[in-house]
Amino acid sequence: MSCIFIACFVLTACSNKPKASEQIAINDMKTIMWDMENADIWFNQIPIYDSVHKTRQMNIQLYEQVFASHNITKQQFYKSYLYYQTKPDQMKILIDSVVAYGERVKASYKGPRKY
Fold it and tell me: How deeply is 6 buried, as exposed, middle or buried, from its count of CB atoms within 10 A (0-12, 13-18, 19+)?
């Protein structure tokens, strides 16, 4: 998850602080961040011999797909993330909920279907 946090920090460092009313709710942010982490994992598993395709643009496209699947914009996500960064108590709740959500998803996975 460190890739997400570093990317979010760099991309939001120069932004204005968002208002509480502009933030994405923790319950929605946890699933968005979970999906972004999975996009990072998938991206990082591209074999080294296929590194020509492993570009920054491809990683950005994966993030854009996550944003589209959650019906949000990149700006909405990064403003919300910045809001949580400025509220350590809320950020802790968010990170804890992402971890708990991930554990529930992993626990419910039953493996590939057998036809």
Answer: exposed
- State which H helix or E strand residue 37 sits in: helix 26-44
Residue for token digits 């854009």? Answer: 64
Strand ranges (DSSP E) for the chain? none
3-state secondary structure of 73: coil
Cα–Cα distance for residue pair 96/34, rounded to 1 Å: 12
Higher pLDDT, 71 or 112: 71
Q: Which amino acid is at 75?
A: Q
Whole-prediction pTM value?
A: 0.71
Nearest alpha-carbon partner for 26 in 90, 112, 106, 69: 90
Distance CA 100, CA 3 (A): 19
